[in-house]
Amino acid sequence: MKLCCAGGGKMAEALIGGLIATGWASADEIGVVEVVEARRAELAEQFPGIVLAASCSDACADDRFDVSDVLVAVKPQHVAEVATELGAGGAQRALSIAAGVRIEGLLAGFGTGARVIRAMPNTPALVGKGAAGIAASANATDDDLAWAESILSAVGTVARVDEADLDAVTGVSGSGPAYVFLLAEAMTAAGVAQGLTPEVADALTRQTVLGAATLLSESGDDPAQLRKNVTSPGGTTQAAIEEMQSQDLERIVGDGIAAAVARSLELGDA
User: Fold this and answer.
1) Which residues pair with residue 52 across a beta bridge?
2) Which CATH superfamily is domain 3-163 in?
3) How far is the C-alpha of 251 from the C-alpha of 256, rounded, in Å?
4) Residue 259 C-beta-side C-alpha neighbours within 13 Å
5) What are the extents of the domains in the chain?
6) Are 59 and 113 in contact (CB under 8 A)?
7) In angstroms, rounded to a whole number, what is the distance separating the alpha carbons of residues 70 and 41?
8) Structure confidence by residue, pLDDT tens digits, 134-156
9) C-alpha dihedral (144, 146, 147, 150), degrees to nearest 10
10) Eight-class DSSP state of 24
């Protein structure tokens, strides 16, 4: 077995699907600990051959499982219990995507000899377009970081940062998809206010966001240049941008991200 996944929720499902699709592992090389019986049935149907257990203790006692390498994908309040049980069962390396659980807390459960990597992914991982920041414990090696990157890169891009920067990662990319969705909501509502049907406004907004994101990703140009490319002097885009900037859009976005970072720090201290 190449990976034991503690938790079988949507993010774990996305990662497992990516790992299988990219050839990182076959279904029978991945084990999942999932307490909800109905969810285990769903995973078994989606990934034929995957190894399943109802609890960490069951997994540790099951010869089919190897808990040496663990992906922690449970809710934050369950991390301590999971880490303690799997640590006692022989876990040596762990990648955690549990929000707000710091490396210190992971080591308290897995044991100070374990190598742990903490990650902050985001929900576009569900469609293979995620962005994640990772930080490692002091005893983790470059090979451990590369291992974590190989898992997360199956569903997107990965950046190495210091743990102190993961709160900023949370503010920018962890929470970031919601900012884009909020913009899409506002664009759709504005289109309706200007006379479009809801269906047309929605379709145009979705495609515009997708097209702009793809252009940003693939063009190699920075966002400011791309904005300038479509902002003709005296044109409609300039009128819109000037109105938005008069309302101090950049400050609003900056203050929003700062609030997300502050809340991430508070949750980490809780």
Assistant:
1) 32
2) NAD(P)-binding Rossmann-like Domain (3.40.50.720)
3) 8
4) 8
5) 3-163, 176-269
6) no
7) 21
8) 999 999 999 999 999 999 999 99
9) 160
10) S
